[in-house]
Design a protein that fits this description.
Elements (H helix, E strand, L loop, with lengths): L16 H4 L6 H23 L6 H18 L2 H5 L4 H21 L2 H8 L10 H9 L2 H6 L2 H16 L3 H6 L2 H23 L10 H24 L19 H15 L1 H33 L2 H17 L1
Helix pairs in contact: 2-3, 2-6, 3-5, 5-11, 5-13, 9-11, 9-12, 11-12, 12-13, 12-14
Length: 316
C-alpha cells in the first residue's frame, strides 16, 4: 500500500523516541486541540472573574489530556504510525483510553454549564442547547452500557481483523476519521463510568466498576491474539519500508504487547478515581448527617433511648 498520499516521507529512518517526538503537526488535530484549550480557558476565566472557584486539578487534567492528543497526532509518532504497527498501537491506546480519562476528569461539560450564560426567557442559547443534547434520547442510547461496551470491543476486533482498517488507512481523511472515532469511543465509554460530568446515566460506584472491568479484558485478549499470530494480520503493515529496518511480524508482536499491557493503565487510573469519589461521597454524606443531627438535637437518638426506656418500664 502506498502511504505517500498522507504527505509523509516513505524513507523514514529507524524509529527512535527522539525522532518520534519531533514536530509534525496534523492541521485537523492541531486546530481542534487549540480550540478545545481556548474554550476551556475561557470558561475558567469567566468563572474566576465572577468570583466562582474552579478546581486547579480539573484544569490540569484537561490540559494534560489534550496534550496527549497533540503528542500522538502532531509529532512524527503519527508519521511512524502509518508504517509501524507498534507505533500506531501506542497512538490508539493513548487516544482511546488515556486521553478520554484525563479530559473527562477535567469536567468540561460541568464547566460549560457553569460558564455559559443563561438565555433570555423564550429563547435558546448555547447552554440550553447543551442541556437539550444531554437530556436527549440519542445521548441516553450512546452512553448506555449496552451500547458503549460492545462499541468499545468492536473498535478493536471489527476494525483490525477486517479490511476496514486498510481501507481507512488508504486516505488521509480515513485516517483522521479513525482517530476521531477512537477518541469518541473512549469518551462515551468512560463518561458514565467516571461520573464527573452530568449525563443520562449515573450508575452507582459498584456498577461503574463492573462496567469498567467488562470492557478491559477484551483489550488484553486482542493483544494476546496479535502476539500469538504466526503471520502479519493487518495488510497495511505487512511490508514496512526497508529504511526502518524492522520485521513485520516482530513489529506486530510488539503492537500486541502494547495493547495487552496498556489495558491495565486505564483500569488502575479509573479505579483509583472511583475509590476517591466514593470516599468523598461518604464523607459528604457523613457531614450532612451530622448537620441534620445538630439541627434537630439528635431527635432520632432521643426517640430510640425513649423506646428503650419504655421497654425497660414494661419489663418491670
Amino acid at each position: 500500500m502506498d502511504h505517500s498520499g498522507h504527505g509523509m516521507n516513505m524513507d523514514l529512518p529507524p524509529f527512535t523516541l527522539g525522532r518520534g517526538l519531533e514536530l509534525s503537526a496534523d492541521p485537523f488535530f492541531l486546530i481542534g486541540c487549540l480550540v478545545a484549550l481556548a474554550l476551556y480557558g475561557w470558561g475558567v476565566v469567566r468563572l474566576v472573574r465572577r468570583g466562582d472557584k474552579w478546581p486547579v486539578g480539573r484544569t490540569i487534567s484537561f490540559v494534560v489530556g489534550v496534550l496527549t492528543i497533540l503528542l500522538v497526532m502532531c509529532t512524527k509518532l503519527n508519521d511512524y504510525g502509518m508504517v509501524m504497527f507498534s507505533v500506531h498501537m501506542v497512538q490508539h491506546m493513548i487516544i482511546s483510553m488515556l486521553s478520554p480519562i484525563l479530559i473527562l476528569m477535567g469536567a468540561p461539560i460541568t464547566l460549560a454549564l457553569r460558564a455559559l450564560p443563561v438565555a433570555a426567557r423564550g429563547s435558546k442559547g448555547p447552554r440550553e442547547w447543551l442541556l437539550w443534547i444531554l437530556q436527549s434520547r440519542y445521548m441516553r442510547i450512546i452512553t448506555h452500557p449496552a451500547f458503549t461496551i460492545p462499541l468499545f470491543i468492536a473498535s478493536l476486533y471489527a476494525l483490525y481483523f477486517t479490511p476496514l482498517f486498510d481501507t481507512l488507512m488508504g486516505s488521509k481523511v480515513g485516517h483522521i476519521g479513525m482517530m476521531v472515532h477512537f477518541l469518541a469511543v473512549g469518551l462515551v465509554f468512560f463518561w458514565p463510568i467516571m461520573g464527573v460530568d452530568p449525563g443520562p446515566h449515573r450508575p452507582g460506584y459498584i456498577m461503574r466498576m463492573l462496567e469498567l472491568f467488562a470492557g478491559m479484558p477484551f483489550h488484553a485478549f486482542f493483544g494476546i491474539a496479535l502476539m500469538m499470530a504466526s503471520e502479519p494480520m493487518v495488510g497495511t503493515y505487512k511490508n514496512p519500508p526497508s529504511s526502518l529496518g524492522i520485521d513485520a511480524l516482530a513489529d506486530q508482536t510488539a503492537a500486541g504487547g502494547i495493547a495487552w499491557a496498556f489495558s491495565e493503565v486505564p483500569s488502575v487510573l479509573v479505579l483509583l478515581a472511583l475509590l476517591f469519589q466514593w470516599y468523598r461521597s461518604e464523607q459528604r454524606q457523613a457531614r450532612r448527617t451530622d448537620r441534620a443531627a445538630d439541627r434537630d438535637g439528635d431527635k432520632e437518638l432521643e426517640a430510640y433511648n425513649a423506646y428503650l426506656a419504655s421497654l425497660a418500664a414494661r419489663g418491670r
